């Protein structure tokens, strides 16, 4: 993988009384009433923060939320304070800003073992521009930089990359370390046979990851909306299923590449088709070669699930990115749920199972199987970029081990 071999860790750092700037990814979904609908990322940030508290550091937490253009109340991090306080067992203080005199004063008042949450760092356009003056202001708040925001590590922003130039030591938190161990370590040195399951809506958004995984895996399973581009490339009718006409040649070349590399490529043999894109659509199961005109494939079928399951039984490491169907609609969630169940079962038998972020994580959570997997990534875009072999700026900026 095109990233650092190992980054400096938090363990061993002299922490007592030190002001530690911790970049976390608290970009959690909120509903219209600003209630947190999934607190996974907050829970994932806890081990590093607790460690710092236990070692009497003064903890300064920084995160973004959403993609605000300037100061936008609905993107304030304030609604996260109660849950964060509950999980940490302390009263987390909240600053109204992330830089400036007022913040400097509040930081100076953090007691040993105390935690301060800074306001959304993206309220400043300088954050995404990776402005050096802004990064210096963030850096001036602390003695140590910890990056635990794996989910944002693919962004070269001031709080994820720039700040590490001005604040040393710059080390990885425990979540960052764990994500890298699994997504870099397990993929670089997998127990074999090694399988990848790639789904999601479009082949265009997964080209990089498929090409990169073809270099490493023994088996590649494809599902989701992208399969229809592969079917059409093979001359099959796909009805009104999602197809990327400009990616037909690419699909053919990926099939050829798999052959050349000796990778067993499994495409679903049957699909669940619908007469419209809706939760209450009429549906039926048809062979992949017999999708009727006017119908669209929205899930993999029972035969495919059986074949996939049997092939997965032979593997020792599995990485999964992207749902098998439109799992948001109950009628078309069976394929994704079946894969989630299979991976949970295999984890119990010692197979390493890694869920590579984004919607597949949502599907595993929905199935109540998250705690059964070897590793569930907190990063959607970041895990995808890492699996594509791209360097993550937030990791590269950290000190070498
Ligand atoms: N057959 C299909 N037709 C249309 N859409 C589909 C089909 N199968 C899956 N999808 C949709 O694909 C979407 C997920 O695609 P995406 O490429 O975003 O996956 P992901 O990689 O898991 O997510 P992320 O990009 O957030 O990491 C889901 O919303 C799902 O409904
Ligand atoms: O949710 C994510 O993938 C991360 O928090 C990064 O957010 P972004 O895509 O807005 O940079």
Please, could you describe this protein's structure?
- With 401 residues, this protein is α/β, with parallel strands linked by helices.
- The protein has two domains: 19-177, 3-Layer(aba) Sandwich (Rossmann fold), CATH 3.40.50.1260; 190-387, Phosphoglycerate kinase, N-terminal domain (Rossmann fold, 3-Layer(aba) Sandwich).
- The chain has 15 helices and 15 strands.
- The mean pLDDT is 95.
- Bound molecules: adenosine-5'-triphosphate and 3-phosphoglyceric acid (3PG).
- 3-phosphoglyceric acid binds at residues 25, 27, 67, 151-152, 155, 380-381.
- 3-phosphoglyceric acid is lined by residues 25, 27, 67, 151-152, 155, 380-381.
- It comes from Salix brachista.
- Its EC number is 2.7.2.3.
- Monomer.
- (2R)-3-phosphoglycerate binds at residues 41, 122, 155.
What would a concise description of this structure say?
This protein is of the alpha/beta class and 401 residues long.
Order of helices and strands: EHEHEHEHHEHEHEHEHHEEEEHEHEHEHH
CATH superfamily of the largest domain: Phosphoglycerate kinase, N-terminal domain
User: Architecture of the largest domain, CATH level 2?
Assistant: 3-Layer(aba) Sandwich
CATH topology of the largest domain: Rossmann fold
Q: What small molecules are bound in this structure?
A: adenosine-5'-triphosphate, 3-phosphoglyceric acid
Number of structurally distinct domains: 2
Question: For the residues shown, what is the average pLDDT?
Answer: 95
Low-confidence stretches: none
Shape: elongated
Report the span from N to C terminus. Answer: 17 Å
Strand order of the largest sheet: 3-4-2-1-5-6
The helix fraction, in percent, is: 25-40%
Count of DSSP H/I helices: 15
* Helical/strand content category: alpha/beta
How would you characterize the largest beta sheet?
Answer: 6 strands, parallel
Main CATH class of the largest domain? Alpha Beta
Estimated share of beta-strand residues: 5-15%
Count of DSSP strands: 15
């Amino acid at each position: 993988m095109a990233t650092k071999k190992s980054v400096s860790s938090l363990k061993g750092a002299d922490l007592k009384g030190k002001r530690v700037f911790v970049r976390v990814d608290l970009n959690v979904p909120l509903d219209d009433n600003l209630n947190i609908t999934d607190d996974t990322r907050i829970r994932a940030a806890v081990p590093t923060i607790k460690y710092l508290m236990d070692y009497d550091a003064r903890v300064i937490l920084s995160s973004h939320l959403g993609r605000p253009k300037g100061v936008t109340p609905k993107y304030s991090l304030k609604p996260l304070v109660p849950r964060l306080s509950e999980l940490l067992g302390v009263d987390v203080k909240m600053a109204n800003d992330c830089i400036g005199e007022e913040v400097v004063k509040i930081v100076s008042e953090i007691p040993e073992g105390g935690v301060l949450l800074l306001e959304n760092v993206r309220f400043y356009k300088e954050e995404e521009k990776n402005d050096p003056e802004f990064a210096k202001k963030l850096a001036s708040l602390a003695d140590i930089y910890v990056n635990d925001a794996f989910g944002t590590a693919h962004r070269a922003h001031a709080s994820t990359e720039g700040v590490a130039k001005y604040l040393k030591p710059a080390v990885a938190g425990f979540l960052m370390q764990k994500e890298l161990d699994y997504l870099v370590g397990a993929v670089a040195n997998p127990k074999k046979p090694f399988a990848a399951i790639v789904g999601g809506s479009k082949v265009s958004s997964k080209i990089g990851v498929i090409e990169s995984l073809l270099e490493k895996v023994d088996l590649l399973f494809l599902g989701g909306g992208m399969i229809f581009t592969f079917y059409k490339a093979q001359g099959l009718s796909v009805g009104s299923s999602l197809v990327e006409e400009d990616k037909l040649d690419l699909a053919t070349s990926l099939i050829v590449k798999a052959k050349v590399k000796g990778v067993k490529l499994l495409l679903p043999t049957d699909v669940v088709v619908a007469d419209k894109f809706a939760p209450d659509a009429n549906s039926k199961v048809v062979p992949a070669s017999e999708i009727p005109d006017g119908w669209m494939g929205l899930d993999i079928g029972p035969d495919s699930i059986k074949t996939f399951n049997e092939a997965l039984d032979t593997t020792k490491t599995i990485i999964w990115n992207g749902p098998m169907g439109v799992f948001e609609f109950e009628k078309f969630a069976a394929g994704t749920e079946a894969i989630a169940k299979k991976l949970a079962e295999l984890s119990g038998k010692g197979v390493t199972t890694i869920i590579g972020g984004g919607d597949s994580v949502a599907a595993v959570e929905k199935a109540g199987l998250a705690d059964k997997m070897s590793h569930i990534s907190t990063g959607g875009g970041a895990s995808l970029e890492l699996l594509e072999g791209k360097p993550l700026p937030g990791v590269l900026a950290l000190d070498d081990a």
